[in-house]
Amino acid sequence: MTLAPINMDHHWLPFTNNKLFHKEPQMFARASGVRYWTPDGREVLDGSSGLFTCAAGHGRSEIAEAVYAQLQTLDYTPHFQRAAPISFELAEKLAGILPEGLDRVFFGSSGSEAVDSAIKICMAYHKANGEPQRTKFVSRSWAYHGVNLGGTSLAGMVGNRRDFGGVTVDVVHMRHTWSEEQRYTCGMPDDGAHLADDLEEIAKTYGGETIAAVFVEPIAGSIGTIVPPKGYLKRLREIADKYGILLVFDEVITGFGRTGAAFAAQEFGVTPDVMTMAKALTNGAIPMSAVAVKTEIQKKVIESITADRPELMHGYTYSAHPVACAAALATLGIYERDGLFERGKALSPTFLEGVFSLRNLPQVSDLRGYGMLSGIQLTPGAAPGAKGSLVQRKLFDAGLHVKATGDALIFAPALVTEEVDLSAMVEILQKVLGQADLAA
Ligand code: PLP
């Protein structure tokens, strides 16, 4: 097949070494189910659900049809003092699967927007509640909360912070929960709940009454899947309550069946005050994110304003975009009709068995996993991230797309993956990670 030449001069790719990419482009031209095809027609299995987006697999006609119909009916409506019925329908549908009590939903277009919106909502709540001094935030080292300025401040991944000194949000970091003793733990580590006490230490050091919220990913995803120790999230909840600190779960990766339940909050039995979500909300087809808050948080903010002005001076041109709402409603319909959260839960033991079959391979130094989400830590390479980048390219050449982050791979196939495809993915991982000298 002869390909038309592609001019790569103009598109600056995000989170990419563009120089390397220009030399060795890795492109997809088509996708269906759990497969991508490159422009020259080579099949590549999707081991990361796109970017943890396509939980229901690629090319879902129900979503395409809903989007097309919506574009023909109402392509756009502003949401500043205007609305369309479809966003209320979506918010109600979401409220039906959200953790108990979180039934008020604010929409954005990306996970990063959801995180920054959540930061502002927390501040607005405390102000409305007569505690405007609560402006400090707590998050964790190794955290990823998107790339807008609020999320970048919260982030604990050094590489994502160091170029952006002076960003605005006042953040103190707790420790992450990974330790040497946890190597090769499948599921929740037994030890480590005490690490939640970092929040208490921070509250004592800075004054609990100055802290607005603590942000955590229930399972830290982007660093390479760090599963919370047993009792850790519950302990965080208790300490947050003790000091009047809002607990925010960033469920941008863990939402929509990835852990076994609709959300990790339900899976781990801990209800946050605020929750962010994106990615699989629309199966990745149309950008959309959401922040869910407890009823009393929204009520407090709304009731604090008596004048005719918005209670939350915040919003986006594409908040609750009707086409995104249509994509989300179709996606939630698929999850419900096909029982995909339950399917993911049922597939998880086979998936994790496959992941842990990689244990003694020469390129593997740790394995972690929960539900349909796993982290494969590679042995270190020449420089931090070099091995991850190399392995990611080798896997692509061998027919598997997996997201690499530093020297970890995040293996998280779609909830619709058939066992035969799962086995094929694991075989490719075994083949590539089993090579003693990868560079050769
Ligand atoms: N929060 C978490 C936990 C994420 O994993 C991500 C993206 O991976 C984000 C926020 C940012 O989402 P987006 O890339 O859609 O802005």
Automatic annotation (TrEMBL):
Keywords: Aminotransferase, Pyridoxal phosphate, Transferase. GO terms for molecular function: transaminase activity. It comes from the Bacteria. SUPFAM superfamilies: PLP-dependent transferases (SSF53383). The keyword Cytoplasm does not apply. Pfam families: Aminotran_3. Its cofactor is pyridoxal 5'-phosphate. Belongs to the class-III pyridoxal-phosphate-dependent aminotransferase family. This is Aminotransferase class III-fold pyridoxal phosphate-dependent enzyme. The lineage of its organism: Bacteria, Pseudomonadati, Pseudomonadota, Alphaproteobacteria, Hyphomicrobiales.
